[in-house]
C-alpha cells in the first residue's frame, strides 16, 4: 500500500507536468491545427533560463523563495519570447502551405533549438538548485509526498483553472475560441487573428516554462535533450485526452503519468518510455480523437 | 520594400530592431554559463556581438527573400533559370548519354583513384541516397510523413548482425532477407496506422521508431544492449575474403549497384498505377478515395516498399561498419534522412540524390562544421520550408496541355 501510494503520488506529479506542457500543444493545435513540434524545446529553454537566473541569484545570496519567483518570471518571459519568435519565423510564412510543410518546419525548429542550447551551454547534465525547500508529508507508514510534488500539482491545477476561466470569460479568450472555430470568419468579424495566434503561443510557452522550472528543481538536473522526451509525452497526453480540449489535456496528462508510474513500478523500469509510446500508439489506433475529443468530419 | 532613401532607412531601422530583439532573446543562453555546484559564472560577451551582426544582416536577406516569394506567387512559373537550363540540356540525347557515361566512369574508377577514407565517405553517402530514395516513396510520393523510418534500417542492420553472429549467414543471403523483413515490418506498422492522417501519423511513426530503439537498447540478452554487436562479417566475393581495402572497394560497387537498382525501381514505380495512386493520395486523400482508389492498399504499398530499401540499407550499413549499436538508430537519424528528402525536393529522384550529396558529403569535408551539423540541418529545414517548399530540385510532373483554341474549335 505504501509503495502504491508512493507510485501514485509520483505518477500524479509526472502527469501534472505532462498536462502543463500538453496545454500548450492543445491550444496551438486547436487554433492553427499544427503540432508545434518545438514546444518541448520551449520547455527546455524555460528550464535553462531558470537555471541561469537561479544560479546567478544564488551567488548573489538571495533567499530561496525570492529566487524561485524571479526564476519562474524570467523563464516565463524568455520562453514566451521564444514561442512568439518561433511562430513568426517558422510557422507564419507557411499558413497557406500544404499541411506537411509547417510540420517539417517545426521539426527543423526543434532540431535547431536543441543544438543551439547544446552548443551554447553543454551537452552534459547540469545540476539544478533545489528551489522548493524540501519537506516531506509523512504518514504513519512513511513519506507520502514531498513539498515539491505538492507545489507542482497545485501549480498545474491553478494554471488549468486560470486558463479555462481566461478562455471562457475574457475578450481575448473569446477571440481565441472564435479563431479556433473558423479562422476566416473570425478575421471577417474584425478579430486580429495574427495577434490571437501570437497570444496562444505566448500563453502555451509560458505554461511550458513554469513546468520546466518546477520539474527541473524537483529532479535536480537538466540537459539540452529533456525537451524531446517531455514534448513527445506531453503530446501523447494531449492526444490521449483529445487534442484541442483543455480538460482533455489535463486528464490525458494524469492518465499518462499514472500509467507510466505504475508500469515502471510494477512491470519494469527499463522500458519506462516504451509504455508511453505504446499507450500513444494504442490510443491513436482505437480512439484517434482521444478521450474527450470530438470526431471531426472531413470534407474535400 | 520601396527603394529610395526613406525605404532604406526604414529597412535599416527594422533590421536594427530585429537584431535587438534577438540579442534579448539569446542573451541568457548564449552569454551566461553558471555552474551551480562550484558557484562560478562564465560570461561570453563576444557571442552577443556575433548574434547581433548575423541577425542584422540576416534580417535584410530574410525580408528580401520573403518579398521575392510574394512576388513569385503571382507568376505561376516557379522554375529557376538554372533548372530550366538543366531541363533543356537534358532533353538533348547527346548530353544525356555523355553525362551518364561520365558518371559511370567516375563510379568505376572512384575507389582506385581515391583513398580508403574517401571511399568510405562515398559509401555512406550512397547508403543515405538509398535511404532517401526509400523514404521518398513514403514521404515524397505518398505524402505520409514517416518519422520512424530509421526503425526499418535498424531492423535490417540487427537482422544481419545477429544472423551473422549466431549462424554465420553471409551478406548476400541476408540482403534479400533484410528487404523482406523491412517490408513485413512496414506492413505490420502500416496496418494499424492507416486510419491516421498527417500529423498523427508522424507522431505514431516516431513513437514506433523510439520503441524499436528502446527495445534494442534494453533487450540485452539478444541485442547486447547499448554496447552493440561488433565484428560483423564483411561481404565476401564468391567465398573469397577480401582485405580491408579490397572489401571497401567491393562494398562501394555493391552500393553503386544497389543505388542504380533503387533509382530504376523508383523511377518505374513513379509512373506506374500505384505511383499515380500515391500522388493522388498525397494531393487529396478524400478526393483520391472518391476516385475509387483503395486507400488501404496504396498506403500499405508505400510503407512496405519504403521499408524494403531501409531494410537493405541496414544490412549494408552493418556490413560496412562491422559494428552496430542502438545509438546509430536514434530519431535524429530519421530526421537526417527526412531532411535529405525535404531539402533535395520531395518526390524528385535527382533532388534526393542532390540532397544526400549536400547533407552528407559537405559536413564530412568541412570538419570544423561537424558540431554545427545538426544545427545547420534544423535551420536549413526551416529555411527550405519557408522559402522553397518544393526543395532544391522540384519534382516535375507530367503536364497534359489543354489548348483553348482547339477546345473551342471542337465546341463550335
TrEMBL record, chain A:
Query: So where does this one cross the membrane?
Result: 15-35, 42-60, 66-85, 97-117, 144-167, 188-216, 274-293
Keyword annotations of the record: Amino-acid transport, Cell inner membrane, Cell membrane, Membrane, Transmembrane, Transmembrane helix, Transport
UniProt keyword annotation of Membrane present: yes
Which CDD domains does the UniProt entry name for this protein? TM_PBP1_LivH_like (cd06582)
Taxonomically, which superkingdom?
A: Bacteria
Q: Which InterPro entries does the record match to this protein?
A: ABC_transp_permease, BCAA_transport_permease
Bilayer topology = Multi-pass membrane protein
UniProt similarity note: Belongs to the binding-protein-dependent transport system permease family. LivHM subfamily.
Full protein name: Branched-chain amino acid ABC transporter permease LivH
Q: Which organism is it from?
A: Pseudodesulfovibrio methanolicus
Amino acid at each position: 500500500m505504501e509503495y502504491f501510494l508512493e507510485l501514485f503520488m509520483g505518477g500524479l506529479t509526472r502527469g501534472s507536468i505532462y498536462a502543463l506542457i500538453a496545454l500548450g500543444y492543445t491550444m496551438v493545435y486547436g487554433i492553427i491545427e499544427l503540432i508545434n513540434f518545438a514546444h518541448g524545446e520551449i520547455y527546455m529553454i524555460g528550464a535553462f533560463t531558470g537555471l541561469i537566473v537561479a544560479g546567478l541569484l544564488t551567488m548573489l545570496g538571495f533567499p530561496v523563495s525570492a529566487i524561485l519567483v524571479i526564476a519562474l518570471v524570467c523563464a516565463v518571459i524568455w520562453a514566451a519570447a521564444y514561442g512568439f519568435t518561433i511562430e513568426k519565423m517558422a510557422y507564419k510564412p507557411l499558413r497557406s502551405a500544404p499541411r506537411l510543410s509547417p510540420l517539417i518546419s517545426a521539426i527543423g525548429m526543434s532540431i535547431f533549438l536543441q543544438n543551439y542550447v547544446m552548443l551554447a551551454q553543454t551537452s552534459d547534465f547540469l545540476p539544478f538548485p533545489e528551489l522548493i525547500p524540501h519537506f516531506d508529508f509523512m504518514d504513519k507508514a512513511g513519506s507520502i509526498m514531498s513539498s515539491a510534488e505538492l507545489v507542482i500539482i497545485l501549480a498545474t491545477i491553478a494554471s488549468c483553472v486560470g486558463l479555462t476561466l481566461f478562455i471562457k470569460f475574457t475578450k481575448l479568450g473569446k477571440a481565441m475560441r472564435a479563431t479556433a472555430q473558423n479562422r476566416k470568419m473570425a478575421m471577417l468579424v474584425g478579430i486580429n487573428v495574427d495577434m490571437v495566434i501570437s497570444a496562444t503561443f505566448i500563453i502555451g510557452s509560458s505554461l511550458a516554462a513554469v513546468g520546466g522550472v518546477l520539474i527541473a528543481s524537483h529532479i535536480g538536473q537538466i540537459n539540452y535533450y529533456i525537451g524531446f522526451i517531455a514534448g513527445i509525452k506531453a503530446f501523447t497526453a494531449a492526444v490521449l485526452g483529445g487534442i484541442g480540449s483543455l480538460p482533455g489535456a489535463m486528464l490525458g496528462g494524469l492518465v499518462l503519468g499514472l500509467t507510466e508510474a505504475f508500469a515502471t513500478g510494477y512491470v519494469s523500469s527499463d522500458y519506462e518510455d516504451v509504455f508511453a509510446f505504446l499507450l500513444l500508439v494504442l490510443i491513436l489506433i482505437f480512439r484517434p480523437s482521444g478521450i474527450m475529443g470530438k470526431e471531426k468530419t472531413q470534407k474535400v | 520594400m520601396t527603394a529610395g532613401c526613406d525605404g532604406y532607412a526604414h529597412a535599416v531601422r527594422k533590421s536594427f530592431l530585429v537584431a535587438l530583439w534577438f540579442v534579448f532573446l539569446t542573451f541568457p543562453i548564449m552569454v551566461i554559463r553558471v555552474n551551480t555546484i562550484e558557484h562560478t559564472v562564465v560570461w561570453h560577451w563576444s557571442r552577443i556581438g556575433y548574434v547581433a551582426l548575423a541577425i542584422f544582416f540576416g534580417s535584410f536577406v530574410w525580408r528580401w527573400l520573403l518579398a521575392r516569394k510574394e512576388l513569385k506567387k503571382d507568376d505561376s512559373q516557379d522554375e529557376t533559370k538554372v533548372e530550366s537550363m538543366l531541363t533543356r540540356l537534358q532533353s538533348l540525347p547527346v548530353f544525356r548519354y555523355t553525362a551518364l557515361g561520365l558518371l559511370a566512369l567516375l563510379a568505376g574508377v572512384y575507389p582506385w583513384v581515391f583513398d580508403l577514407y574517401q571511399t568510405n565517405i562515398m559509401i555512406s553517402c550512397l547508403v543515405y541516397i538509398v535511404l532517401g530514395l526509400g523514404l521518398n516513396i513514403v514521404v515524397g510520393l505518398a505524402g505520409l510523413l514517416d518519422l520512424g523510418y530509421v526503425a526499418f534500417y535498424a531492423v535490417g542492420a540487427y537482422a544481419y548482425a545477429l544472423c551473422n553472429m549466431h549462424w554465420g549467414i553471409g551478406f548476400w543471403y541476408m540482403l534479400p532477407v533484410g528487404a523482406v523483413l523491412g517490408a513485413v515490418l512496414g506492413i505490420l506498422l502500416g496496418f494499424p496506422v492507416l486510419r491516421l492522417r498527417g500529423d498523427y501519423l508522424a507522431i505514431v511513426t516516431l513513437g514506433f521508431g523510439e520503441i524499436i530503439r528502446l527495445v534494442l537498447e534494453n533487450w540485452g540478452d539478444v541485442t547486447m544492449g547499448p554496447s552493440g554487436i561488433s565484428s560483423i562479417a564483411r561481404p565476401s566475393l564468391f567465398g573469397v575474403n577480401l582485405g580491408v581495402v579490397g572489401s571497401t572497394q567491393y562494398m562501394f560497387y555493391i552500393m553503386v549497384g544497389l543505388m542504380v537498382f533503387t533509382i530504376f525501381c523508383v523511377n518505374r514505380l513513379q509512373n506506374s498505377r500505384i505511383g499515380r495512386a500515391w500522388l493522388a493520395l498525397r494531393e487529396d486523400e478524400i478526393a483520391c478515395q472518391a476516385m475509387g482508389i483503395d486507400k488501404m492498399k496504396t498506403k500499405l504499398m508505400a510503407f512496405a516498399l519504403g521499408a524494403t530499401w531501409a531494410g537493405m540499407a541496414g544490412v549494408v550499413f552493418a556490413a560496412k561498419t562491422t559494428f552496430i549499436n542502438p545509438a546509430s538508430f536514434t530519431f535524429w537519424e530519421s530526421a537526417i534522412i527526412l531532411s535529405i528528402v525535404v531539402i533535395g525536393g520531395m518526390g524528385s529522384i535527382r533532388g534526393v540524390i542532390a540532397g544526400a550529396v549536400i547533407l552528407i558529403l559537405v559536413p564530412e569535408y568541412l570538419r570544423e562544421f561537424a558540431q554545427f551539423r545538426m544545427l545547420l540541418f534544423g535551420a536549413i529545414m526551416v529555411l527550405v520550408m519557408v522559402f522553397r517548399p518544393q526543395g532544391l530540385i522540384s519534382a516535375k510532373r507530367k503536364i497534359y496541355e489543354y489548348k483553348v483554341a482547339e477546345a473551342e474549335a471542337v465546341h463550335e
